[in-house]
């Protein structure tokens, strides 16, 4: 019995190394640990182990683990964000640039005009930019695509929100824009409504509210690895080692996404996912499962349990970040549509109350003050009576954008 327990313990240690090493960027170590884990799991007891194979797998793991690694480059200090949105508009037509600046003033967005790609790059190097709108055929055939590549090659702008403008906007242009990484394609010249929507979307993408991810895993080292991979200025990661406390942790932290390990003592990741999908308050919460198994049976079980996605061990940092960010962005867009007033862009009553409770809970946990302000628009009925309801709507729209740009 003691030898079998020793085998199980060794398998568990290698299993943890398999999952954790990849999260820290040690891919070769993770793969070697996975091969050793497969060898150990293939034997039901110690007497059936092929010690020659075990020794070879262990030596390979020891070799890959001893390879020195370079220290990661430290990031520079974060830029100080301007209070208003900042949009870079690149177009050779002075009339288009002038109209963009006029619309920017009307919608509390600072427009930085540029007529060439080199001018746009020079502007982007000097100051903060939330997004860029580029004429598709800037200076000639597909010149806007080249300008986009030049802008995104600037350090710190690799994920700069990008949009193109073009009068015709045929399928070929739209495909090229999508391949260049654009999230928007607007008519040229653009309308006030299109400009306002583009500015709002780009600012929201460049300055997202800090998202919260809850990680549930019985292995503290795995949690630490996931925190190391995901935590940033935009993402807060909270770890939970006891799956039995999931509902309490959800109520306390109110995460935007849940990462669940499938294999845990007690309820499995599948079980927890089913529980959430049967609980009205958490039915829409994005759930990603983490597992060492990716067979057809597992994939079917994951989606049948209600998971949105899954990721395999070893967990690679780049893939994990990409999957999590994609789910967070989809959840944010869905939440925007459901929780915000279409006219002002401000929270509706129910989500406002829920958000206030979450902020109060956060302030109490961190022992920090919380400021709350109630505003009333004085004599607003007079605006409607004197200038009409359309003018009143414009006042509310601009006020909403102003508040959204300057307050959390």
TrEMBL record:
State the Pfam families in the record: GGDEF, Hpt, Response_reg
Record's keyword annotation contains Phosphoprotein: yes
Would the keyword Phosphoprotein be found if you checked this record's keyword annotation?
A: yes
Q: Which domain of life is it from?
A: Bacteria
Q: Which Gene3D superfamilies match?
A: 3.30.70.270, 3.40.50.2300
Question: PANTHER family of this UniProt entry?
Answer: RESPONSE REGULATORY DOMAIN-CONTAINING PROTEIN (PTHR44591:SF3), STRESS RESPONSE REGULATOR PROTEIN 1 (PTHR44591)
According to the UniProt entry, its GO molecular function terms are: protein kinase activity
Residues in coiled coil: none
Q: Which organism is it from?
A: Myxococcus llanfairpwllgwyngyllgogerychwyrndrobwllllantysiliogogogochensis
Entry keyword set: Phosphoprotein
The name this protein carries in UniProt is Response regulator
Query: InterPro entries under this entry?
Result: Bact_response_regulator, CheY-like_superfamily, GGDEF_dom, HPT_dom_sf, Nucleotide_cyclase, Rev_trsase/Diguanyl_cyclase, Sig_transdc_His_kin_Hpt_dom, Sig_transdc_resp-reg_receiver
Residue stretches making up the GGDEF domain: 368-408
Q: Which GO terms describe its biological process?
A: phosphorelay signal transduction system
Q: Where is the Response regulatory domain?
A: 86-203, 212-328
Modified-residue entries (4-aspartylphosphate), positions = 261
């Amino acid at each position: 019995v003691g030898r079998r327990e020793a085998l199980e313990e060794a398998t568990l240690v290698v299993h943890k190394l398999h999952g954790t090493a990849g999260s820290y960027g040690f891919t070769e170590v993770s793969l070697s640990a996975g091969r050793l884990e497969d060898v150990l799991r293939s034997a039901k007891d110690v007497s059936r182990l092929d010690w020659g194979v075990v020794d070879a797998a262990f030596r390979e793991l020891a070799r890959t683990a001893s390879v020195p690694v370079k220290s990661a480059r430290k990031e520079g200090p974060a830029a100080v964000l301007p209070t208003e949105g900042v949009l870079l508009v690149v177009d050779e037509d002075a009339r288009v640039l002038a109209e963009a600046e006029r619309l920017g003033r009307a919608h509390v967005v600072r427009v930085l005009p540029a007529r060439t790609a080199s001018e746009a790059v020079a502007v982007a190097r000097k100051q903060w930019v939330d997004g860029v709108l580029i004429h598709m055929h800037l200076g000639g055939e597909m010149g806007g695509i080249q300008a986009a590549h030049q802008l995104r090659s600037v350090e710190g702008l690799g994920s700069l929100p990008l949009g193109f403008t073009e009068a015709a906007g045929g399928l070929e242009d739209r495909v090229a824009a999508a391949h260049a990484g654009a999230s928007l394609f607007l008519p040229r010249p653009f309308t006030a409504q299109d400009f306002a929507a583009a500015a709002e979307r780009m600012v929201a993408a460049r300055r997202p509210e800090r998202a919260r991810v809850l990680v549930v895993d019985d292995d503290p080292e795995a949690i630490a690895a996931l925190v190391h991979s995901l935590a940033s200025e935009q993402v807060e990661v909270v770890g939970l080692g006891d799956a039995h406390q999931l509902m309490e942790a959800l109520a306390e932290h109110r995460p935007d996404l849940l990462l669940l390990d499938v294999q845990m003592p007690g309820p499995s990741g599948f079980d927890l996912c089913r529980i959430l999908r049967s609980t009205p308050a958490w039915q829409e919460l994005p759930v990603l499962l983490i597992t060492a198994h990716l067979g057809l049976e597992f994939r079917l079980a994951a989606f049948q349990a209600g998971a949105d996605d899954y990721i395999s061990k070893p967990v690679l940092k780049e893939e994990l970040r990409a999957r999590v960010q994609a789910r967070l962005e989809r959840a944010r867009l869905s939440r925007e549509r459901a929780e915000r007033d279409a006219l002002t862009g401000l929270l509706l009553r129910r989500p406002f109350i829920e958000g206030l409770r979450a902020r109060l809970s956060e302030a109490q946990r961190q022992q920090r003050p919380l400021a709350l302000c109630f505003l009333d628009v004085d004599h607003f009925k007079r605006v409607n009576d004197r200038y009409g309801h359309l003018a009143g709507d414009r006042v509310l729209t601009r006020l909403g954008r102003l508040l959204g740009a300057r307050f959390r």
